[in-house]
Amino acid sequence: MAQDVLNALTLGSLYLLFALGMSLAWGTIGILNFAHGSILMFSAFSAYLVVREVALSMPVLLLIGAAVGAVLSLLVQVLAFEPIQRRAKDHRQAELQILVGGIGIAIIPLAIAQHITSSVPFGYSGGTFRVDTYDLGFVRISNVQIVTLVAAFGLAAAIGWWLKAARPGLALRGIGVDPEVSSLMGVDRRRLALLTMAVAGALAGLAGVLLTYYLGSIAPETGDAFLLKAFAAIILGGVGSIAGVVLGAVILAGIETFVLVTTSGTWAPAIAFGVIFLMLLVRPNGLLGRQEVRRT
Amino acid sequence: MNSGSRIGRRKALGSAGALLLAVGLAACSSPSDSSSGSGSGGSGGGGEGLPDTVTLMAINGLTGPVAFAGTNAQKGYDLAVEQVEADGLLGDTTIEIEYKDSAASAQEAASFASQAITDQKYTAILGPSASAQSTAISPLVDQAGIPTVYVQSGSEGVVTGDYTFRLTPPAASYFDIAGDYVEAQGVKTASVLFNSGNPTLVQLGQDSVPALAEDHGFEVVSTAGVEATQQDFTTPTSQIAGDDPDAAFLMVQGPQYPVAITQLRQAGYDGVLVGMSAAGAGNLSSAGEDAAGFVWPTNFTADQEGESSQAFVDAYREKYGEDPNNYAAEAYDAVWFIARGLAEADSADRTALQEGLAAVAADGFSGAQGDITFDGNDARVPGVLVQWDGSREVPLSTDGS
Q: What pTM does this model have?
């Protein structure tokens, strides 16, 4: 039982790591970036290309992943999303074009990684970090599992605090409520949008490297596979709420783990998404979505 | 603007939710010399009835998620074309292959097939690796009467009529060699983990392994499915480690293997691990030593015995400077199969070629995969057991030596 709970929390932390950056950009500057999975994968892939040549430690690879993710995300914002926003007739059209544009952009890094790896999985066996497992009697846990859990919930707490207490975070929440009034109040929307996308990309990069460490290896298509789950966690928790994303990720992982443990496993995604559907019927804005919007 | 923004986001949220739910609820020596049947030693060989050039269309995913299969197949095709020409099996006739990249799209594949059907310059089609694409093509080519030779594409609905052939034997057809191995290892209990989104893997997990258990005297104590794109195997591997069977059969997709094996070992499981051919083609490289000892039956490995197999491997190494994998071997056999069919028919007419291919299939031949026989239009090979030694796959006898 304790092992199942730990497994569910670990899976939830993987979904959370992926969803944090995506939720931050969507809930504040209104950008639903479907290239997020590709940025995650390519950041991890870039770290792999480096560690293949030089044996580096986990912190260094995390820095590389975060830097590559931030740069990629900024490039996407400057080269694709900003031009879309400038040319779109209204906000709604811009949102939809960004959504479709993100799907298109995602194909580029995916194709590059697929070409270089021939779609064979890659990992960090060339690095200095080694996985150790500790048997505590009632539960078995690895060092990389601990790092993943601490990083996911720690980052979620840090971002939640930043949005509530730091000036840029407060300004971002202001944009999330009313971009026009925020501008009139002196908020530099473009600068904050760039900052948000850089942070979101860095989170994707961190998530990609941690994910690769935890799973041992990932394939170029891994980002796409997580995209749907992260998206589900955000919708379930409520767009714009960091606490909601945490809750959504843990609930989704909890349901999946429960189904895997109690059945043959085949029905895990169907049951998980069925439960989400029922939850959304009762709370269409997600579990914590409404409270967050009112508060901001 | 404020309300517009909120409404827009709400609508986007609604659209996104609908999308989410829809998806969530809703996959050397010449080979002709080693022919055991027809081929250059058969009625062909002169190519008097053949045109100067026989054009084939190869439809395959050269980009996208199955690019690893498509690009390796392309190498096998190209090598075989060179060898057929050098061998003189078709006289002065040369084979020309036009490559069409269907990426991950069944619609694209069907569109290319339609083009090949209507353009009479194409004598035959080398079909896609992905079952979803092949099942879209098969009804078209069978009805139009253009011979189509597939590699991979292991699902039902691919070999559907006289004009469709498949050079990749179903994994279940040679899986029995894994039974001899686990029996030699003294296995009495086993767990099964399979990918529930892939028909071949479902068949292996739900039918082949239980049948193996019955034939080789072990009991399947647990069977669990994972979704098609499963990334984290922490829970299912913990369950297997908890059950602690003598062996665990992992029937998952290629990129899932290193993760499943690594997490199984981290969960404390140290029993016998058995997989299937998708574990090959370099997929275990990232697992390294964690996957050492992992065993799987396959239709081809670069170090397998057999004159025709080693002739292919030597030629491949010389041309590309690397070891061939099963995708290249199957593709190589597919082109030689068509070349033998052309020699048998002594004609590039589609109907004549189909009859020539049927004759070759009836006799079988020796190729990269060893001695190839056919069950109808579907290839069969003896198969070979291989083991990951921590850095590469090596052949293994069924007693584990």
A: 0.79
